[in-house]
Amino acid sequence: MKRLAKYCSFLFGTVMILSACEKQEISTYNDDPGIYFTTSTYAYSFTEDIGANSKTIYLPVALSGNAKDVDRHFTIEVVNDTNTNVTSEMYEIQQGDLLKNSFNGRVGIVLKRNQQVDQSLVKLKVKLSESSDFKPMLTQTVQITWTGKIIQPVNWNWLKYYFGTPFSTNWYAFMLKEAGVTSFPYSGTLSKTDPVTWWWSAAQVNAYALKVKEALIKYNLEHPGNELRYEDGPNAGQLVTMPI
Amino acid sequence: MKKNIVYILIAMSFFAMSCIKDMTNMDVKPVAQIVIDTTGMGLTTSYTTFQGDSLKIKIKVNKTGTSNDNLKYEWGINTYGGYKRIVGVGRNLETKITEAPGSFVLIYTVTDTTTNQKAFFTWNLAVNSAYGSGLIVVDTRDDINSDYNLIMGFNFTPGMGDSESKIFRNLYSGANSKKIEGIVKDVSYERYTTSRFLTSITDKSIIRVDPLSYQFTMRDNQCFLLPPEKISPNKIQSTQQTNPHEYIVNDGKVHYRYTSTAPFGYRFLGDNLDYSCKEICGLQLPTSSTAAAVLYDEKNNRFLLTPTITSSSGTLTSFPAVDNSGVAPAFDPRNMGNKTCLHLEEGQNKRVLAIMKSRDAAQYFVYQVLLAPLNGKMGYSLHDITNNPEINNSKYYTCSQSENVLFYATDNKVYATTLLAGGGTDASLRYTVESGEKITGMRMHIMQGNINLPSLVNPLDFTQRQTMPAANRMLILSTYNEATKNGKIITIPLQTLGVGGLVTDPLYIKTYSGFGRITAFCNQNQ
After folding, report:
1. Which of A12, A210, A217 to mutate against chain B (most B CBs within 10 Å)?
2. Number of Cβ atoms within 10 Å of the Cβ of B159
3. What's the pLDDT tens digit per position in B234-262?
């Protein structure tokens, strides 16, 4: 009986040891794609298109994972908290697209205009929805604001290099008036996913900035002691200066 | 006990076996190499071809143990930015080069279809335009319209022999089925990598073409990012030796463009006094930290500095206040008196020569102004040339960067005046055009090309001539004979530096004729 137990133990041990010799398969990368917004805020003012009743904006997303040879889609949904103060009639959310072989995609939202929009700043917060194609990651929400008033445009992070960092509504109004435009559609980042809206080159915005600077110099010469100052914003009361 | 030891040893051997690295996925099977044999076939590491020419390459390929029937071939022309064109799928190559002029890499790929094994061979491929480097000559035959011509030859085109020359005529009208409206008064060529621009100005228009084809590309307002209030150009100048960029004076203001950006930017802003200019001179090799160009402000009788080459958005700046400590500067660039500027050009050691004339008197001066260092001593020298021979009849001015000499030309004579230390000058007649001809333009050549000069040992023996680069050693004149309606380009090597000593032996002077009245010319550096 003892011997049988010994043989059984030996056989069991041998089987266990041999099982350690199982052939190893080389592990491969498993794609687990995710997407994220490349901006956390987006602001639009209907001052850019006075006669318009709606505007389609495009929120940019980026892919984490491999590009694929097929178009893929994603959806976003509204976050109904204090950061959303408009009813669903005031916007239309479209399907998000990430086109084949691309690492960048976008989702369109139609922003609508009414009296409330013209007189105040309305807010809408959206977030990425999980789908079979993508998992939301990193920046998953965007705070959208729109109005009929002058507000800091979403591309100020680029305009500030030409017009100065502090934003002020009177300064922005001066810039628009002297440049003779309703917006400065230049953004080195947003142009990647929405080149139609953000169609200016750096050379163009530089040219307009010089034109505005020329007007600012003239204004200050014509208003000695009353040079142009920021009326609101972080540098309210200070003289307007330009970096170029 | 013995049995137990045996069992333990067997068990240990199994344990040891389990430690052997699993190599079953890593079998290495030696495969015969594909051999692209370039030896003994006269193959080079690079090819240079003209656009539209054929390129033929014969090559040997073999692979031991495999029939060549299993090999697949691909010839691709590639360049930076993802461009790729398959130009052949046979073992040998025979293709027509349609690529735009530029630098490419020709990649030959051989694939064994049975194993997907690949072998590569690459060559650098330079594609030149059929219209290569040369001298663009703009002429008119009716005093109403203008046209482009191109001279390619020893004086202007690298690689062309002493006796070789080609003249392409009527290039604009040939490419666009009409001539340029108006008389072109200045022309400028600028190239940044593969972006090329040839821009002409008349009194009231700006016309740009693609110098690879001479097809019209844009005009007037299209040439600006923000259209100016008025199209009234006076001067255009490119700098090509580093960071290629271009200036245009339009309606008294200077606009700037650079790299591959085609339109000019917004005008340079002046200071509180504003400015109005006709002439500007950009240095060919400006430093990155000092002014790239200087202009003369006719409104306030002063010189102004542009921003550095890396700043297209800064404002023009005044020169610093004069510093009279130690050796006082020759003049104050901020206050030039009642003078107008006839010409600005880069001279020796990055000094800019300004040929000035009193507005209310027949007085002529040469001022040499420094663009760096920025201090109160930038008014380098002043030379009164009022008493120079025929200076009152002078129409054209130029200088070399290799000597401190001003050339000025009347209708039929070229004088050189050495700008002596201390402010004096020493003028000499250097060239007289043939009877019946009138000089219509004059420039110092500053780009590619070659000249011949007499041997220093035996100057009378032409066979012992020396060949050297033409840049800053060759004066280019344009002349016109009203009776014969013949316009000429005459190139005269500068034999003796320091005194503007133009060569006098006609064997060394080249003439290119058959043009209308030449109104402008410039280098084309393709």
Report:
1. A210
2. 13
3. 999 999 887 889 999 999 999 999 878 88
Contacts of B263 in chain A (CB under 8 A): 203
Interface test with A, best of B10, B23, B226 (most A CBs within 10 A): B226
Q: B-chain residues within 8 Å CB-CB of A213?
A: 269
Last residue of a domain, one of B341, B372, B387: B387
- How far is the alpha carbon of A21 from chain B, nearest alpha carbon, in Å? 6
Q: Is residue B515 part of a domain?
A: yes
Query: Is residue A135 located within the same domain as residue A164?
Result: no
User: Tokens standing for B401?
Assistant: 């960067």
From its phi and psi, is residue B422 left (phi > 0), alpha (psi between -120 and 50) or beta?
left
Give the integer Cα–Cα distance in Å for A181 and A196.
Answer: 17
Judge whether residue B463 has pLDDT over 90.
yes
Contacts of B193 (CB under 8 A, 6+ apart): B102, B260
Which chain B residues have a beta carbon less than 8 Å from that of A25?
Answer: 25
Q: Domain end: A100, A128, A149, which one? A: A149
For B495, other C-beta atoms within 10 Å of its C-beta total 18
DSSP letter at B68 equals G
What gap in Å lies between CA B252 and CA B27, rounded to an integer? Answer: 77
Whether A94 maps to a domain, the answer reads yes
- Say whether B266 and A207 touch across the interface (CB within 8 A): yes
Domain count of chain B?
3
Whether ipTM > 0.85 holds is no
- Say whether the peptide bond before residue B373 is cis (omega within 30 degrees of 0): yes
> Would you tell me which residues 127-166 of chain A have a C-beta closer than 8 angstroms to some C-beta of chain B?
162
Angle at which helices B2-18 and A2-19 cross, to 10°: 10
Going by C-alpha positions, the residue among B505, B419, B519 that lies closest to residue B460 is B505
Report the side by side order of strands in the sheet with A91-98: A72-74, A91-98, A104-112, A54-64, A34-37, A135-136
* Contact call for residues B118 and B129 (beta carbons, < 8 A): no
Strands (E), A65-121: 72-74, 76-78, 91-98, 104-112
The low-confidence residues of chain A, meaning pLDDT below 70, are 1-31
CB neighbours of residue B251 within 10 Å: 14
Domain ranges, residue A167: 152-239
C-beta of residue B26 within 8 angstroms of C-beta of residue B53: no
CA atoms within 13 Å, Cβ hemisphere of B151: 27
Express each pLDDT in A128-144 by its tens digit. Answer: 998 888 889 899 999 99
Overall domain count for chain A: 2
B379-384 and B466-469 strand pairing? unpaired
Flag if B269 and A217 touch (Cβ within 8 Å): yes
